[in-house]
Design goal:
Elements: E1 5-16, E2 19-25, E3 28-30, E4 34-38, H1 45-52, E5 60-65, E6 68-69, H2 75-81, E7 83-86, H3 98-110, H4 127-136, H5 152-164, E8 170-174, H6 182-195, E9 200-204, H7 208-214, E10 217-222, E11 225-230, H8 232-237, H9 239-246, H10 248-256
Parallel strand pairs: 4-9, 4-10, 7-8, 8-9
Antiparallel strand pairs: 1-2, 1-3, 1-5, 5-6, 10-11
């Protein structure tokens, strides 16, 4: 697997009226890896995601994508570069079918999202690709189902399909298994493993079982700063991580399991 960096931050810092939410973070994500950001509540994980995807401007520091600075670029500009984010709360249209949701995402990629005057039949050429994407995430049988009627785990899978429609080279997944039962978690883990082929994934994830099964490398944040970095075995044995992330006793049990 290639060792080239696809995403890097240098001294990334975000302050809110004197409170430092992200503190001098130097993140290096290797191309082709599944890389996790973990940490306790309030560690700064989602703020880092918001900085990377331009929903927040940094106070200081640089963000580089494929070696080029993107610190001052806008959200839509970095999405066009192939850096695409999937949100913590499912971001699909409830009263549209699964197929229609994916088709809307395909329209965004084509730049025709706002052509409201066009006949719906003019979009039929997108159906084949939309069905391919639904099949890729295991949702072909849900094509004509309204999203509001789909189980929660399948909605998250649909969100992955809409993300894939934008043809990302790097996907940022924010808590992809939050609120799921074990069966849905297993399904999403396999889905992420499958769609990561040929792509890079950076994910915020609270479920350490998911992290241990999926991730090549892990960055641990605490109070906005990088506490540790390494593979799962390295990170799970780190006493500072056990203390900060899970509490020393629970982490010791996890590490010895």
């Amino acid at each position: 697997m290639t060792q080239e960096l696809i995403l890097e931050t240098r001294g990334l810092t975000k302050e809110f009226r004197g409170f430092t939410a992200v503190d001098d973070v130097n993140l290096k994500v290797q191309e082709g890896h599944i890389h996790a950001l973990i940490g306790p509540n309030g560690a700064g994980k989602t703020t880092v995601f918001n900085l990377l995807t331009k929903f927040l401007p940094p106070t200081r520091g640089e963000i580089l994508y494929r070696g080029k600075p993107i610190t001052r670029m806008k959200a839509n500009e970095i999405a066009r570069l192939g850096l695409v984010r999937s949100f913590q709360i499912s971001a699909v249209f409830g009263h549209m079918t699964a197929l229609e949701n994916v088709r809307v995402a395909l329209q965004r990629k084509l730049g025709t999202s706002f052509h409201f005057w066009k006949s719906e039949r003019s979009l039929d050429h997108l159906n084949d690709r939309a069905m391919e994407l639904l099949d890729e995430v295991g949702l072909a049988e849900y094509a004509d189902v309204l999203t509001v009627e789909m189980p929660y785990g399948r909605k998250r899978a649909l969100e992955v399909a809409t993300t894939l429609a934008l043809e990302p080279t790097m996907m940022l997944l924010d808590e992809p298994t939050q609120g799921m039962g074990a069966e849905d978690v297993d399904r999403i883990v396999e889905l992420i493993r499958r769609v990561s082929a040929g792509r890079t994934v950076l994910m915020v994830e609270h479920n350490l079982s998911v992290v241990s099964r999926l991730c090549d490398r892990i960055t641990v944040l605490a109070r906005g700063a990088v506490l540790a970095e390494g593979d799962y075995q390295e990170v799970s044995r780190n006493p500072q991580v056990r203390e900060a992330y899970m509490g020393s006793e629970a982490a010791a049990e996890e590490a010895s399991a």
